[in-house]
Amino acid sequence: MIIITHIPFIISIILYFVSSVLFIGYIIKPSFFNKKIAKWTMVMGFFVHSGFLIFLGLESGNIPITNVYESFVSLLWCVLFVYINLDYLYKIPSLDTFLIPLITALSIWALTFDGNNLLITISLGNFWLIAHIIPIFIGYAAFTISFSLSVMYLTQQRQLKLKLFGSLFNKLPSLERIDNLMWKTISLGFPLLTIGLVFGAFWVKTQNVLGEAWYLDYKVILGLATWLVYAALLHMRLIASFHGTKIACLTIAGFCLVLFTFIGTFFMGSKHAFQNVSEQTNTEILNVQ
What region does 241 belong to: left with phi over 0, alpha with psi -120 to 50, or beta? Predict the structure, then answer.
């Protein structure tokens, strides 16, 4: 059930969807679709999204990650924030055509977690927790952008292979530039992921959040696996000088692992400082009896 206070996020999703249609339309038929309108529609969606996060933060008195839904919404905001800044720095043509539809789809998925009973059960004022979350979220955002760049790379490569030198080919950057941008985003995300994991280890040890066997938590295990995948990607790029298709495919696989680590682990039974409200209520009732 959609709570009325979450309507701003639904509005932002609608704006992202409209923006996606306009961006894709501009690639296919630039004479009919206006890219500036698509850009401004996306920016309006981002501002509404930002306002919604501010509202959630003021309502809870904490950073908006008090449940899985808020965490997902916050992560998506980070993706757009990082993208807007990278686009300003590097002027990445047509990345929005690949990224904004992904943001739209993930936002719709995030709505399905609205009303989820998993709530965070520890103080959000803890330094190590904040130091763990912020780098992780920004790192994941960078990996999301690298995923979109990888899809763009494979798309442009296909245009070259099939000699389809049409509107799509002309709107996309060269393979060399896309490859370079993939490298930049992975190089941004990896150290942030590393910092987040290190601070996360301090957090679980000092607060005893996950118990003595914290290293067996699904999210911890998959977080380490994600770190190893991107470490391997950087190693292959720096040492083995891998480029192009192999890096693009591994980056896509890495992003799938990121998404599964962030959301999928909850379906596997990982709590990771979250507690099922209904289970907690039942336990309290039994204790009273």
Answer: left
Q: For the whole model, what pTM was predicted? A: 0.90
Please report which helix (H) or strand (E) contains residue 120, including its range.
strand 118-120
- Model confidence at 124: pLDDT above 70: no
DSSP code of residue 213: T
Q: What is the mean pLDDT of the chain?
A: 85
261 class by beta-carbon count within 10 Å (0-12 exposed, 13-18 middle, 19+ buried):
buried
The structure tokens listed for 272 are 């990771």
Scored b (16 or more CB within 10 A) or e, 39-76 reads bebbebbbebbeebbeebbeeeebbbbbbbbbbbbbbb
Residue 51 half-sphere exposure, CB side, CA atoms within 13 Å?
14
- Which tens digits make up the pLDDT trace of 144-203? 999 999 999 999 999 898 887 888 888 889 999 999 999 999 999 999 999 999 998 887
CA 92 to mean position of chain CA atoms: 19
φ and ψ of 169, to 5 deg: -60, -40
Measured CA to CA, the distance from residue 56 to residue 63 in angstroms comes to 8
What interhelical angle do 68-90 and 175-207 show, nearest 10?
140
Contacts of 194 (CB under 8 A, 6+ apart): 227
3-state helix, strand, coil in the chain (%, to 5): 75, 0, 20
